[in-house]
Design goal:
Largest sheet: 2 strands, antiparallel
Helix content: 55-70%
Radius of gyration: 19 Å
Shape: elongated
Order of helices and strands: HHHHHEHHEH
Strand content: under 5%
């Protein structure tokens, strides 16, 4: 569990000596505390604030909301890749991964996918080891 002092410390970093913080920083603050809400969820929270700045109490409220932790998301990604891995070799076609990243969930632009995949080894058969991809994230 997140300690109250941690929330206050993070708030102070982003509020820069103010008593309130810009609503655009709400997602950043929550993520700094180990939660990983989607951008869609964060945008919903910002709408709830109606453009108003938030204080420590408000940050505590949003940190308390259910949001996946990065470790849970990592486990879920590995399980999803296993389902797509018909051969059981721990690989996925680069083209298939590109299609997934550009079209599912919070879709990425082609340039963003290129940047993500830049450091990965593509085998001669066009596959990528999905564990290496998840580890890189």
């Amino acid at each position: 569990p997140i300690m109250s002092g941690e929330v206050e410390d993070v708030f102070r970093v982003f509020a820069k000596d103010a008593k309130t913080c810009d609503p655009s920083l709400l997602g950043t603050c929550v993520r700094a505390l180990g939660k990983n809400p989607s951008e869609k969820v964060v945008q919903g929270w910002i709408k709830e604030l109606k453009g108003k700045r938030f204080n420590v109490a408000t940050l505590k409220k949003y940190v308390g909301k259910k949001a996946p932790k990065p470790i849970d998301q990592e486990r879920e990604m590995r399980e999803a890749f296993k389902v797509l891995d018909a051969s059981g070799k721990g690989t996925i076609l680069e083209a298939e991964l590109r299609q997934i990243l550009c079209n599912l969930g919070e879709a990425l632009r082609t340039e963003e996918v290129d940047m993500l995949l830049r450091g990965l080894d593509v085998e001669d058969d066009g596959t990528i080891a999905y564990d290496a991809f998840v580890d890189m994230l």
